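Hi there. Long-time user, first ticket. I'm pasting a complex I've been working with (about 536 residues overall). I'd like to know whether the download I got is complete or cut off, because the file seemed smaller than I expected. Thanks.
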Amino acid sequence: MESRSILETIQMIAEENLDIRTITMGISLFDCIDSDGVKARQKIYDKITTSARDLVTVADQIQTEYGVPIINKRIAVTPIALIAAASGDHDYVAYAQTMERAAVALGVDLIGGFSALVQKGYQNGDRTLIASIPQALAETTRVCSSVNVGSTRAGINLDAVGEMGRVIKQIATDDPVNCMSLVVFANAVDDNPFMAGAFHGVGEADRVINVGISGPGVVKRALEQVRGQSIDVVSEQIKKTAFKVTRMGQLVGSIAAERLNVPFGIVDLSLAPTPNEGDSVAEILEEIGLEQVGAPGTTAALALLNDAVKKGGVMACEHVGGLSGAFIPVSEDAEMIRAVEAGHLGVEKLEAMTAVCSVGLDMIAVPGETSAASISGMIADEAAIGMINNKTTAVRVIPATGKKVGDSVEFGGLFGRAPVMAVNPSQPQAFIQRGGHIPAPIHSFKN
Amino acid sequence: MKAIITVVGQDQVGIVATVANELAQLKINIVDMSQTLMDHNFTMMLSGEWDDQVLSFAAVKAALDKLGEQSGLTIRIQRQALFDAIQKL
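Hi, the file is complete. Here it is re-exported in full:
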């Protein structure tokens, strides 16, 4: 092996923050359904803790042997609204507590799947689960929740959109920080390893290992070498870099799957930033040639980045899945925060950006006085972008109770700090209150 | 087991000997080796092979970490499969 290749690999890890963002084990809970809630929860606890018994140990072993940091070890389970529905329980907070206990026992960072899929309508379990979300998130620290309110095939459940606006406001009155554990999706995917939106889809195998990679720093550094050259060269450079980064994900995932004796599912090709310096998606866009992210041209640069990452990554691994695109969570990206604070990036531009990348209005703090209807309006807009464009979109907003534009909310660690962003004060109240269902779009006459 | 060992540190007399001596004691066979000076930093890359039934990866890593600390060098050891995966088609 050439010395140059060895040094390059080491530099990617040591200086450019290349890491495996998460190894997520998906676990089906269908065999835990019971008409007695207590029994069901015991089965859930037992299944999770036996299935993922060695997850953290194996991840640590791989980290030691390959010298690749594995930041998070996570679990995703079947949406609890489906599992708990048979129990007749009137409140699912106890299920969240069971998930939390299992996560603590295993030493995993987060556990996702306190979820409901209501894009076409509610079953009883969905209603109970959604009503339990505020208390469930207040009483746990590792449980993540998601609700899918729309899809390209089913349209958008406007009743659910309205309800989720109220739920998010209610969570924020307890503690705005809890809002970061809830994602409202359109076209949610079954094999997403990233939180807070991970759940184990109904069509998945009993257990599966999915891997999420990171590496914005590596792409940024690679682009520094082609400054001033044509955009074709930029695209090629991103593809080559994404290929290398993804190969690492494929290697780590396949080793983890083999050692855990669980089938290997997918590599999620997303570029996931962290608040650490040099680990920013916004800086890649600026390296492409924007003075600061948010400038006219941002959407085009992001579209190119997102597509080139996929093209490079697809060939590097056996199966691609999850969200697979560039993430633009404001609080988790130091340069995004600076752009917002400089007045160069607003909610409307971010919304436009979500039309060309994964995943949506993510980790955005809005003023505490933002109405539930306004939040529902933001959810409806994102869901519409997802529904029409055949892509996953999501909303993870944080109404910063008692704060206004210019203040910020601290989340700590990988989740960073979110500056409070202005929301258009004009109200969509009457639209949201109509309720009902936005029909699925026509799949012809694309324009 | 095959692993790549990289050593980086301020250039000084006896770096190669120190590292090679430790590897010999651990019964690690050096299969390939190269070194260079980059901005007064000594950089050495070794490809080593040993029987991991006799000595675990973790034990080798611990020994090299200790050596690195004692001699002011950054010593990394990583299984070769990582480099093959990232750099080879």
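A couple of notes from our side: Chain B touches chain A through 23 residues (CB under 8 Å). The longest strand of chain B covers residues 29-38.
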